[in-house]
Amino acid sequence: MLALKKVRFDNFDPESVRFMSREIMILRKLEGLITYRLSTSVYLVFEYTEHDIVGLSSCPDIKFSESQVKCYMHQLLFGLEHCHSRGIMHRDIKGSNLLVSDDGALKIADFGLENFVSVGHIQPLTSRVVTLWYRPPELLLGSTSYGQSVDIWSVGCLFC
Questions:
Q1: Contacts (Cβ under 8 Å, ≥6 apart) of 60
Q2: Looking at 10, 92, 103, 151, which residue is catalytic?
Q3: Which residue among 65, 93, 150, 158 is least packed, with the fewest CB closer than 10 Å?
Q4: Rounded to whole angstroms, how far apart are CA atoms 92 and 129?
Q5: Which BP terms in the Gene Ontology apply to this protein (predicted)?
Q6: Active-site annotation holds for 92
Q7: pLDDT digits 0-9 by tens, 49-76
Q8: How far apart are CA 79 and CA 23, in angstroms?
C-alpha cells in the first residue's frame, strides 16, 4: 500500500518552495523517492506505514518488551547512520516522526527540517529546529554551529 503527499507549488511563498525542494532532494538521495508532477502540484509517493511510536506507546493495550525497544532503537540508529553517512541531519527526531509498520519495521519520517552537513565545512544554521523536548543544550542556548549530534541527542531523549 502507498501513501501520497500532494505539494502545491502555486500557493507557496519562495521560502516554502525552497524548503520543500530541499526536502524532495534529500528524500530522493536517501530512498530514491518517486515523484509525479501534474500541473502545479507534485505528488510524493511513500510506503504506507500504519503507526507511529507515540500512537503505539499511548495505547493502554500495548506494552513494549525490552527486546522490542532494542529492536526499534537499533533500526533508528541504523536509519540515522544511513542519513548521516550521506551528509544529512534530520533535526526533528521524535516519536511522532518514527513510523512503525505492522511487521515492526521502523521508518524515519518528516524530513521538513533536515539539512545537509559536510565535514570540515561549517555553515551557520538556525537553532530553531528540533521539537523542544528533544532539543540538545547547544540549541537551547542558541548555537548556530552544530552537526549530526543533535539527532543523537534526540534519540537519547526518546529512549531514556
A1: none
A2: 92
A3: 65
A4: 7
A5: positive regulation of transcription elongation by RNA polymerase II
A6: yes
A7: 989 999 999 999 999 999 999 999 999 9
A8: 17
